[in-house]
Amino acid sequence: METITSPADMKQFSRRLRQEAHRIGFVPTMGFLHQGHLSLVEQARVQGRCDRIVMSIFVNPLQFGPREDFEKYPRDFDGDFQLAWSAGVDCLFYPDVRDMYPDGARTTVEVAELGQVLCGVSRPTHFRGVTTVVSKLLNIVMPHVAVFGQKDAQQFFIVRRMVQDLLMDVELIRAPIVRETDGLALSSRNVYLNAEERKQAVCLYQSLMQARRLIDEGQRDAQTILRAMRTHIERHPSARIDHVAIVDTERLQPRTVVEGPTLIAAAVYIGTTRLIDNIIVGEEP
Ligand code: PAF
Hints:
Shape: globular
Number of strands: 9
Order of helices and strands: EHEHEHEHHHEHEHHHEEE
Largest sheet: 6 strands, parallel
Distance between the termini: 35 Å
Strand order of the largest sheet: 1-4-3-2-5-6
Bound molecules: pantoate
Mean pLDDT: 97
Number of helices: 10
Strand content: 15-25%
């Protein structure tokens, strides 16, 4: 497995792969890898039909707010290296912040409106940071396919909009959420939870399963479903709801009635740790 730190070297590596007719799959991450990330590698290979996989590890300062956890975000390059290698990643791109954001850089990329709802309400600059770094990474890695996890569903829908709007030549894959046995979605931030919080954290998933059950039983009224979700989460003393929402998957606007492709999303503080989870019903094509 190659490790490349310079954007220029990464471009050269990708150019060579393209000249040799390889199909490049790209898995952007912020490191502290877990099975969820490794499943993205598998998706790139199988669903994306890629024969070369590039993974980036870059804790992107631009997507953290001033009071968020950029400094303490977990980092473990040696552990990540081992996991990426064992998953068959061909190239690890591990750039320095000064190369991604050189002095004088003035350009950001922002998808209007979609980044101001849901998680964007409490993290108003987050998605601008994400779309800025993802467009840089796509320009550097030049992949045929890029894979994003559904756990960050809003991120996926915003990146999809950006790729469409900017006519970017990359195919996107939305990979299913990988969960612990009790249903908690895998996340690098789960390490922040103490034992009691870890137990209560499953309330996000349970509330989503409750929503799915109600929908399966024929309930279509969004407020009724959201009320049931909130009631379930609020029974857990460590939990404080940031938002629960039922929205369409294009503009991320609230639905009053569940019909068509619909994202049901929850963001909940468990203690001081903000966790997110979601399901998509009325699947997209
Ligand atoms: O999902 C993430 O880990 C990050 O938001 C991403 C896509 C790597 C951009 O920094």
